[in-house]
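[STRUCTURE TOKENS]
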Amino acid sequence: MVRRNGTIWFGGDDRFIELMHALTHPEEQWAHPERPDILLALDELSAWAHDSRIYDERVHKSGWSSAIADFLGAAEALGPVLSASVRFNIDALRALVRSDVGGDANLRSDLMTAASALRLVLADAKSLSAAWQDLLKACGRKESSFDTIAIRRDTFWAMARAADRNVDELSRNLTSILSGSPLGAYSAMLHVDPANGRQITASEIRDAQLIAPVERLQMVDAMLTAAPRIRSHVVWFAFRNAYMNTVAMLELPSFQFFEARWVRGNLEHDDAPHRDQIPAELREHGSASSIPDKPDVVLARVDLGSGAFSDAVRIAGERLDELLGMSSIGRAAPWERIPGFIHFQGESGVSDRVFEYSQSPSISPESSMNAGAQISRMVPRVAPFVPVQDPAMRDIIDSLHWWRVGSDQASAASVVLDVRVIELIASRAGEAAWTTYLEKYTKNLWIRSAVIDAFSRPLYEALHYRAAVRNPRQREIFLETMKYEEGEQYFDIRKAAGHLDEIIGFVPENLPLSRDLRTVRRRSTSSSSMKSWCKALEKQWQGWVHRLERVRNSISHGGPFTERAVALTQPFSRKLSVWMLWECVDCYLDGKTVVQAHDDIKSRSDSWRNSMNNLKEINDIFEF
């Protein structure tokens, strides 16, 4: 769940600040625990409808049931405006997703047709506009829960992707408009129709008044409903591990490649000897400092020519990937795309995303310190048990290697390795099916973790909120809740939760963070509200386990899956596998067998869940 409350917009006001936060970082989901949006769920259902394997009820029925449940759940979560807009198509699909659809060729054919029809409806600008209205209305209601805002926000970005809009460009343009900044709005609207944009002077921008709120919303509507027009498009990308050897520039039809250092050096000085060899749009862009000054970086220029492209950046990237993919077969270290781009439309630079060069994965000093502290603390406990004599535990200890290997694998491979770890631990605990094992031993553990996480994230962020650091009481609670013991720093969630009402007062009411805190307070005020919360989380848990089973089986046995479904599922599998590894090792070090360790896990987590039915005070939530 990403709130981004530290984001700052210049040159405007904060009238629509909650909306503006919701429109930043579209690549990240807000809904927590993360769930499939309608586009992901529909694409997964469509993949199952097109599965070419002969249907085997024993093997495939559970996968079909999970894909159907995800779709129906995502459809039920749609906002009222979008739901009304697509009701006909949703109802058509709902009538087809019967339990026997996988084995009925006629039903599957009808399902394919209905899924394609809904996909086209979701891609229409009307659906994007409807999703926007749902988000706008939800943010306008003080009583809306944070979860409602999160789902509406993720649905809006799903509709933007369905419409093939470049979400990075759209995010920047919409927040520029909503800030009320005349310059931001002018730059954004050039993206819609650069031909009608007259040149404005710096003095005109300086003297202009903030754009009226009603006019801002009208401009947003215009941007969301604008159809792509025929224009020329040029997009620049950057690659690392991409030495140009003996040339600084390589020109091909529609593609050009430049050594980044050569480009930057010639852009930094007006009298540089080869400045005129750099394409005019980049010379006029005036941002030499944004180009990585590294010897292994190559800039790639893709000229799409003239066309009506809803997402020129994506199309240019795909063409470039095709070119380089076929040109680098057999190379041990192919070129690696650096996050970022510069997009020119006509003669204007309509959007960009800073090139983020990373030499190697960075490890924060705190992570290193905490890892060192844990090793120092654990080594005296572990040493007397090495070498491990218990055969059941020895297999589990060996599987730690699989888990570490999985962290370096692509998402799909990681899911398979994570489930392999869970299967092994399940067998040692006496369970034949890993899904039954998860239900029996980890369900309530996961529910408790979700509740604690829902408390800790907003409370921690509120105590670090930039506008509150000058508040003496905020500082006092911050020092009380941040602990440093045995070489590790940690956040005392119990003490922070005891000050929940005070902490809510530290954050401006119109931020998503404030809404998040108010939602947590509302859910934890009584045993009945906590019981309802846990019940809702249990339903999400069941969806997660079925989704993990579906995705893992599809990866392992040639079934249907989408990349987004794998990316959504992988953090869940990682979390469960490391949890159970940790619990097994911890109990073993206390002299318990694997079976005893699991009995202890089940007893503690079930006891916690039962105690939520008789909640007396907020600190009871953190007892375990």
